[in-house]
């Protein structure tokens, strides 16, 4: 981990020799190139295309195993997904060596008190069956009341917040790197001013910011700024509102019901032009911009299709995708969490009150 000031724009693409087999893939691309990777500000390399594990806990063991066997080498999980045991078992079943995989997890907001951080990580390591994670992130900048309740609420259902801040949590996370339990630390769902505070008040620049990015929420100036700070962006929900969660959750916004990316006409035309699926075009757009993408799927052909989503789009086609930006943020539990998330970013209008669970 380098100190603030020592890193600038270090997220550069690299290619390693680790080809994946493609014979049964739907796409027509014959693979001659190795999967693209980027270099973090720690010097570690992170794959461009990864695998998300939110939802479907009963299917995740098999899905993780299949994703690794299909060639994916970046697994994203989180304590609050309650799938870390399944991820650990799936990883073991895949037979892929630990050192070949970039494994990241996230602390949940009730574990943010500095005295709770290491014990929470230890539970993740136990469940994931690994001595270390490649990346530990704070899931959100908001701190909930410490304790075993992941969503601590008062009698009226209002979320109870903790007394420490994300800065206290971050300092506790920094110590875990020195102990070798964590290779890099990062954040998720932070806004620009929160990241500036973190960098001003601590000695570690986050290696990664995991945040919502897709054609309907492109956050171009924020992405440019993160790149300039040497903070690598991992796009969550890279397929936008494909995830039904955004239509079903208590704080679902009207905007979540907009046309799904796979039905978007301009994207469909691009998919036809390249002989790819719309999903592959959308993932290729993110990877081409220097970001990692972590689509979630439990469906075999979809997993294998997503592996094959790193190809170059012509600049004019990138412009077509850029024109689809609607600043449509689907993941915004601000009102439920009693904390204004994304305060200096795009797409916060239309946040709805309602419980996550
Ligand atoms: N940090 C955070 O706060 C945060 C928030 C949200 C997500 N995440 C992470 O990001 C990951 C991905 O985000 P997400 O799960 O919200 O959404 P997503 O990956 O953008 O979309 C998932 C949906 O797309 C479908 N899909 C995947 N590949 C497809 C393909 N090739 N063709 C057609 N459909 C396809 C999946 O289908 P099936 O369900 O049928 O497989 C699922 O319904 C999560 O799993 C999690 O690891 C992080």
Quick recap:
With 357 residues, the protein is of the alpha/beta class.
Describe it.
The protein has 357 residues and is of the alpha/beta class. The protein has a single domain (37-348), classed as Alpha-Beta Barrel (TIM Barrel), CATH 3.20.20.100. Helices cover 33% and strands 11% of the residues. The chain has twelve helices and eleven strands. α1 (57-69) packs parallel to α2 (84-94), α2 (84-94) runs parallel beside α3 and α8 packs across α9 (278-288). It is globular and about 55 Å long. The two termini are 36 Å apart. Mean pLDDT is 90; it is low at 1-12 and 14-32. Bound molecules: NADP nicotinamide-adenine-dinucleotide phosphate. NADP nicotinamide-adenine-dinucleotide phosphate binds at residues 52-54, 76, 139, 188-189, 210, 236-239, 242-243, 279, 294-299, 302, 305-306, 331. Residues 52-54, 76, 139, 188-189, 210, 236-239, 242-243, 279, 294-299, 302, 305-306, 331 line the site of NADP nicotinamide-adenine-dinucleotide phosphate.
Summarize this structure as a short list of keywords or feature phrases.
357 residues, TIM Barrel, eight-stranded parallel β-sheet, three-stranded antiparallel β-sheet, alpha/beta, disordered N terminus, 11 strands, binds NADP nicotinamide-adenine-dinucleotide phosphate
SSE string, helix = H, strand = E? EEEEHEHEHEHEHEHEHHHEHHH
Largest sheet: 8 strands, parallel
CATH architecture: Alpha-Beta Barrel
Give the cofactors and ligands. Answer: NADP nicotinamide-adenine-dinucleotide phosphate
Poorly predicted regions: 1-12, 14-32
CATH-wise, what's the superfamily? Answer: NADP-dependent oxidoreductase domain
Helical segment tally? 12
Helix content: 25-40%
Beta-strand percentage range:
5-15%
Mean pLDDT: 90
Quaternary status of these chains? single chain
Strand order of the largest sheet: 4-5-6-7-8-9-10-11
Which structural class do you get from the secondary structure elements? alpha/beta
CA radius of gyration is 19 Å
Shape: globular
Give the CATH class: Alpha Beta
Kindly give the count of domains: 1
Number of strands: 11
N-to-C span: 36 Å
Kindly identify the CATH topology.
TIM Barrel
